[in-house]
Structures are given as C-alpha cells and as structure tokens.
Model the fold of this input.
Amino acid sequence: MHEITWICEICIKERPDEAISVHKVDLSEAFGIPTSTCQRNIKYCNDNKQCLEGAKAEGENEITRARNIKSREDQEQKDREQKMKYPKLNAHTFVLNPEDNGGEQIHFNTTISRDDEDNVELSHEITLISYANSASINCRGITPEQLRAWADSLEKKINEKISPEKHELK
Done:
C-alpha cells in the first residue's frame, strides 16, 4: 500500500500526509458573500515555521486578490448600471492610422448618450492595439470643437515656416 503524500504550496516539496497541515482562509467577506461560502485551503509543512508563515502570508495575499476582484466586479456593475441609466444613442469609431496593417492601430471610440437632464453626454475610449495586446484610456467630455481646435493647432505647427537661424548649432 502506498503512503499518502501532499505537495506543500509554500516550499513545493512532496511530504507525507502527517507532515502537511492546511491553513484555511475564508474569502467570503472579501467577495461580499456569507461566511464560509468561499474558502481557500493552503497546504504547508507543519514542521517548518517558514512554511507556516508563508501560508499565512499567502492567505493574506488571497484576501487582497479577492478584494481586488470584488472591487473590479463592483465597478463593472456600476458601469453597466450607468450604461442602462444613460442609454447609448449612437457610437462612432475613428481609426487614426487605418493604413497600418502591421498589427498596430489607434482607435478613438465615442459613445453618445444623454444624462439626467437630457444633455448630450460624450464618453471616449482611446485604444492602442499592438498585435494581440491593447491598452485603453477612458475620458469624458471631449467635444468635436476641442478636437477641431487640436487638429487646427497641429496643422498650424506643421505648416509653420521655420527660419534657418533656429536650426543653427551653437
């Protein structure tokens, strides 16, 4: 008959059953659910103080991760409620560099909705797409007039005549 063994989650050693204990971490509160509903069991060597301390630290890390997940989920729920509260009237996507088929693009997405006072609300998402990765920045309230002013000022700088003296090295 074979002896039962377990892997310590801290030192990653295979140990006999009697040398392994379990540090139980209740994650329920962090997720906002009834106590003992969600638990994480961390196996550790019961004859090694460093493994016990490591299991306790891992338990605290698990609680922090659970709180972060819950916080993210709460924010996503608020965002969903906000979208329901202010239904989307229209949307527009502008690709700043559509000719780039090398896997990198910049998208400027605008969602048009109405607020509580029936005013037009603009929310924007600027997304950099690089092959399989992307990063987004969200911002609100940038108007077409502001974008036009930005484009005009950029065009003005591009078309400015620069005198040769400004390019001399000193």
